[in-house]
Amino acid sequence: FPHGITPWPSFVAVLVCAALMGTLYQMLFPRPARWYVVAVALVLGGALTGVLTLSLTPTGERLAEIHDLWSALRIVVLTVGLPEEAVKGVAALAAILVFRRVMTPAMAFQAALFAALGFAIVENTLYAKAFEGASLLIALGRGIMASFIHSLMMMIQGAFLARFVATGWRRWHLPIIGWLLAAAAHAGFDWGMLEPLTVYLTKGGDPMAMEAAIMQSLPVLIVGLPAPFVIGLWLFRGALRQTGEADPRSREPGYAARITRWRRAGNVLL
């Protein structure tokens, strides 16, 4: 990424999108996560993302190593799926452990979502800086879509972190399994897009080369793109249902009506 500061309108757009998504995540659960849990998960998610960005090989060098689907798979697993989901998972787990005395399964799931938003804020800001010609458009587009997609991956980890808390903090294999599954979903999501992206960037979007790359990646795209949406939203819906049943507030008429509307919208989206 180029050096310098992201244009302030783009940075504000990234923050506004993250704030909207964070508000949504707080509203959907019977009780909003405590502000200090949200703050720690968000800050750690962003800070660890900055460290990861500095430690990874520059994007251009990684893309230069892609020649076919199998080389793309190696790149997405080793430099995208595993490290990025590890960063988000560590941020969420740290927030959960720091506030262990007040932590509930629902709050553990919410900590995972806010760790994802912290990650997305830093990543979206860097992309907005990298594409200065369309900085604001990138900030708004990624501010919604990329933040949501990172949240989907953390819904997978969040389900396992919530179970980890619910079972008495003893089953340490659960966060590890959640991390590996989220990394697999993330790698699968990016895998089919990486070779066409490389062709576009290295060959100037040559139509023949692009068509060949897309057709070669099509079977992976058909499976990899929708899988995190279905898995993540299914687990999110399950977490909302379980925490709602355990919280007395879920029996309040106003809250029950609101959840009914969201459940209907979620079913349509799934």
Write the layout of secondary structure elements.
Elements: H1 8-28, H2 35-55, H3 59-64, H4 69-98, H5 105-130, H6 135-166, H7 173-202, H8 207-224, H9 226-246, H10 253-269
Helix pairs in contact: 1-5, 1-6, 2-4, 2-5, 4-5, 4-6, 4-7, 5-6, 6-7, 6-9, 7-8
Keywords:
mainly alpha, 82% helix
Topology as a string of helices (H) and strands (E): HHHHHHHHHH
Helix content: over 70%
> Quick check: average pLDDT?
87
* Largest pleated sheet: none
Per DSSP E runs of 2 or more residues, the count of β-strands stands at 0
Beta-strand content estimate: under 5%
How many helices? The count is: 10
Describe the structure.
With 270 residues, the protein is mostly helical. 82% of the residues lie in helices and 0% in strands. The protein has helices at 8-28, 35-55, 59-64, 69-98, 105-130, 135-166, 173-202, 207-224, 226-246, 253-269. Helix 5 packs antiparallel against helix 6.
A few lines on this structure:
With 270 residues, the protein is mainly alpha-helical.
